[in-house]
Amino acid sequence: MSELVTGEAVALELRPARLPSRALAVLLDLMAAMAVYVVATIALVAATASLDEAAQTAISIALFVLLLVGGPILVETLSHGRSLGKMACGLRVVRDDGGPIRFRHALVRGLIGVIEILMTLGVVACIASLVSARGRRLGDVFAGTLVVRERVPAGQAGFVPPPPPWLAGRFSGLDLSAVPDGLWLAVRQYLTRMGQLDPQVGWSMAERLASDLAGRTGAPVPPGVPPAAYLAAVVQERQAREARRAFGHGSAEGGGPVGPVGSAGPAGAYAPPVYPAAAVAPDVRPAVYPSADPGTAVRGERAAPPQEEPSAGRPSTGFAPPA
Q1: pLDDT per residue as tens digits for the range 296-316
Q2: Where do runs of H (alpha helix) occur along the chain?
């Protein structure tokens, strides 16, 4: 699996395409381009029979560059990384962060592909793909792209639970440009597996990730917001921004402003870990953890599970409490 951090509706755990499938896709693309080139050349020869030899040669070179170089670039740009051969093989070109490619990515891949595929008969591209851990050729390295397999068996991608409704849209003003892909990956992996972690370990991991994320965004975690809920809300905000960028401004909304944090507390896996009273030594003071209400704290006493007494005014968040 490739460590891709995606903000749109692309699964994170995508398999990088290897040399055999990529070579087959390139072969299919070249066959389609050559068929179009032959048909266009025959039509061009018939249409330019009255011109001199120099004009016919110039037009033939322009047609070759337009169809075999500009054609793949245009197709990958319009189809967001799916050429004819890649669609047949179940492949797609994506950015390093998992998002859809744009014209500049397709342009760099196409121009370098002329050298490493057409001029060297694919020898340079094969060597680069074999050396790269993700099977990337030189065009992918310079363009910052990756060819992945779209046909992944269902159920492999982890489900990222949504944040509580009272946090929806609260972080719409954060600057997420300085957050590296590695941190996004760590946050997403934590959110998909936090139900399998020990409550104490999961809480400390969430605090570290929330501290790192807050340091990158330049805004501290709001008081009273559990770290897991903060991480889920920021990830949802990033997904909403990527979806709006890819599909239009009206396709995904992160939610509007909400009331104060204390108006509705976290539930389920967002609550701090609860420690049995018997597990605390008589001479050791139990740790204090922040709860949803800034004026209260959770000590060693066991609290009633939030799922048993749901609030009438707050819908379910989709999180299950850790075992």
Answers
A1: 443 444 444 444 444 444 444
A2: 19-47, 53-65, 71-78, 84-89, 103-113, 123-131, 138-143, 181-193, 199-217, 227-247
